[in-house]
Structures are given as C-alpha cells and as structure tokens.
Design brief:
single chain; alpha/beta; Urease, subunit C, domain 1; TIM Barrel; 8-stranded mixed β-sheet; 14 helices; binds N-(iminomethyl)-L-glutamic acid; binds fe (iii) ion
Length: 400
C-alpha cells in the first residue's frame, strides 16, 4: 500500500511551479494550501479547502498551523570533509589581513592528519547542521587532500552522505609540488588528470577546478575539466572569485552546469552567462567572511542569467552552513529581492546540480518541505539571524 501524508493548513506555500492562478511569478505561491505526498513524492498541491475531496483519507495529516512552507534548500556548493579550522586566520582577516587562496594548504595539512573516524564524525555533525537549517540536498567537494590517496578518501567519505560529490583535486597545488623544490604545477595537473582522477571518479559525479590567480591557470583548469568530462563526470568551475579572469568563459565554453563565485565579472562574462545554461552560483558567505566586494546578482539577473545561491561552507572563506543566512546577505548586499533569493537557494541550486527531482514542489518531485516559523518566505531575509526553520521533511518524512 502506498504511504500518503497530507500537509495541510499551510498559510503560504512556495512551490517554484508557475501553474495557472498562482502568485509570486517563479515562486508559484498558493495561499491556504495543502500538499499530498505519496511514497515521498508530491502527488497533489492545491487549496486546503479542496483537499478533502481531492485526497482520499491519508495515512497521516501534518498541520502546518497557517505558517509558510518552502521547498527544501538545495546547497550546490560546499567543502565539508576537512580537519581543523582556521579561526585564527579569520580573526587576523577581520584585523585587516587579506584573504588568499594559499590558506587552503593549512587545511590540507590538518585534513591529511585526521583519521577517517574524525572526518566522518565531523561530517555527520555538519549534515545535522544542514538538515536543521532546512537543507535537504547538498553537494560536497574534495580538495583538502591533494594526493591520490587523500583525495580518494575525501570523495569516498563524502559519498557516504550525498550523491552530489565533486572531485576537486585541482583546488591548489600542494606544497610538495610547488617550485622551486617540487616538480611544479604542471606535474601536479598531470597527477590530477591521471591517477588521481582514476581513483576518485568512481565516487564522484562532478569535476571542478579553482581557476584563479594563486591556484590554476585557465589552461591547467581546462586540462582538468576536460579529463574529468572524458572520465564521465559533469563539469563545474570555481571562477572569478579574487579578481577578473577566464573562469567564467571557460565554464560556459565547456558547458559547465555551474560556475561558482562570479564576483568579478566583465560585460562579456555576464553576456556569456546569459546566453548559456551555465548557472551563476553566488556564495554570499564568502564575501561576508573575506570582506571582499559582493557579486552583483542584479546585473546577472537583469541580463537574463540563471542565478543560484549556495553556502560554500568551508573552514577558510565561508564557515557557514546556513542557507537562510546566505539568503539574508544576498538580499541585503547583492541586490536580490527576497523572492529571487529564495528561488536561487532552492530551484536555482537544483539547476546548478542538474536535478529535476528537487528544488520545487510539483507533482512527481521529492516532497522536501521546510516549515518556517513565519507567515511568509520574505521573513527569511527580513529577520536575519533568527532561527525560522521549524520543521524539515525530506521525501515526505520528518528529517529535523
Ligand atoms: O570556494 N575558492 C576556493 N575554495 C574555497 C575556499 C577554500 C579555503 O579557503 O579553504 C572557496 O571559497
Ligand atoms: Fe568553494
């Protein structure tokens, strides 16, 4: 027998499905709504008053008390398998030291020294944090191992908690490869595209490269991304974070699902994104935590690009796992409306991961719901820092 759950008495239901008669443009809002989940999938959405006739007696009824419900957050960018932290570096930065990609190497050291059990326990705690804050789908990148064994371990551990695993061997050149004593960046790229990719690809769905001054050139990034693609992985790119560069254009040219950061964009970059189906993923926690200028979401949206918001949760540039926090910052400092930011953190993230089963509450999709202690989605930006996530359901089941 299929299991049926009726979520009812929803004051404002954001579906991200623009069916006729709904409000809020892309948010597809239904007021005084109900949603039926059958075996974890959305089966019916409509006015609560029609639920009794539309829905035969469900196994369970969940009363939302007139509160707002949105789809579960889809966090399409995080780096959650690592050892140690960089609180001192953060404090120094707040005292005026600039952020540099090189800080990644101190986390590489701490990660290599941590046992599997330590990394697993840490990861489990982060997953709990994500769930409690309304994230029901999340991506995790490797990139703090930077040797064949260490990267293989990170993607393997990440795969224990999510399907969305990204191989980021090309995060920075590890210290043992750096000139003048080591074999150099090109030799490291050879390792990444050869033995390391072969070891990691079985656990991963995506390949990524940090195309930035202090990390990898466009040419080196291209070698990594093309090798990953030839090995069956989808492409995503870290680009244009610390300054203008070729990351965005490379991502668009390779048909990447997403290019992430997008802080320093030329008019050509914006036009290229708008003409492509590569998602521009913005990471508000990074500029918050590095004191760099925020990316201009308005410029991208007005040009017609697809924008997602993700946490980039990592110990260096953005140690937040909170999508509500990212939404609030995106609205306050990146010129997004609350509606655009909520869409970007749900449907936008799903597009960035090329997922068609999450990010919206449409019949057939996973019944991933976040109940807010608020009457409207707007409160996520309007009440920054307030824990508004009340209950979280994934595939129709209570998760947090
Ligand atoms: O996405 N940009 C590159 N990688 C991470 C930062 C990692 C770190 O500082 O440890 C990011 O911001
Ligand atoms: Fe990142």
């Amino acid at each position: 027998m299929p299991r049926t759950t009726l979520f009812t008495n929803i004051g404002e239901l954001t579906t991200n499905d623009q069916a006729p008669g709904r409000e809020g443009g892309p948010l597809g809002i239904v007021r005084d709504a109900a949603l039926l989940a059958v075996d974890g999938r959305v089966a019916w959405v409509g006015p609560a008053a029609e639920a009794a006739s539309a829905v035969p007696s469900p196994d369970e009824i969940v009363d939302l008390g007139g509160r707002a419900v949105i789809p579960g957050f889809v966090d399409s960018h995080s780096h959650l398998v690592f050892g140690g932290d960089r609180a001192e570096e953060f404090a120094a930065r707040m005292a005026g030291r600039p952020y540099e990609a090189g800080g990644i190497r101190s986390t590489v050291q701490a990660t290599r020294e941590a046992s599997d059990e330590e990394l697993r326990a840490r990861l489990a705690a982060f997953v709990g944090e994500l769930h409690r804050q309304g994230t029901t789908t999340f991506e995790i990148k490797s990139g703090y191992g930077l040797s064949v064994e260490a990267e293989e371990r990170l993607v393997r551990l990440a795969r224990e908690v999510t399907e969305e695993v990204t191989f980021l061997g090309a995060h920075v050149v590890p210290f043992e490869y750096r000139e003048p004593d080591g074999p150099g960046a090109d030799a490291y790229v050879e390792l990444v595209t050869g033995e390391m990719l072969a070891a990691c690809a079985p656990h991963a769905k995506w390949v990524d490269a940090f195309c930035e001054r202090g990390a990898f050139t466009a040419e080196q990034s291209r070698r990594v991304l093309e090798a990953g693609r030839a090995g069956g992985l989808g492409v995503r790119v870290h680009g244009n974070q610390l300054g203008p560069g070729e990351g965005v254009r490379l991502a668009v040219e390779l048909g990447a699902a997403s290019v992430d950061h997008c802080t320093y964009l030329s008019d050509e970059d914006v036009a290229a994104l708008a003409a492509s189906d590569t998602v521009a993923t913005l990471l508000p926690g990074v500029e918050f935590s590095t004191r760099q200028p925020y990316p201009d979401a308005r410029r991208l949206l007005d040009a017609g690009a697809t924008v997602a918001i993700a946490s980039d949760c990592n110990p260096g540039s953005s140690f937040t796992s909170s999508m509500p926090f990212c939404i609030a910052v995106a609205v306050r400092d990146m010129r997004m409306t609350p509606a655009e930011a909520v869409w970007a953190a749900t449907a936008g993230g799903a597009l960035a991961l090329r997922r068609e089963d999450v990010g919206a509450l449409r019949p057939g999709m996973s019944a991933d719901l976040v109940e807010l202690d608020a009457p409207s989605h707007v409160h996520l930006a309007y009440r920054p820092g307030v824990p508004l996530v009340r209950r979280v359901f994934r595939a129709g089941e209570h998760l947090a």
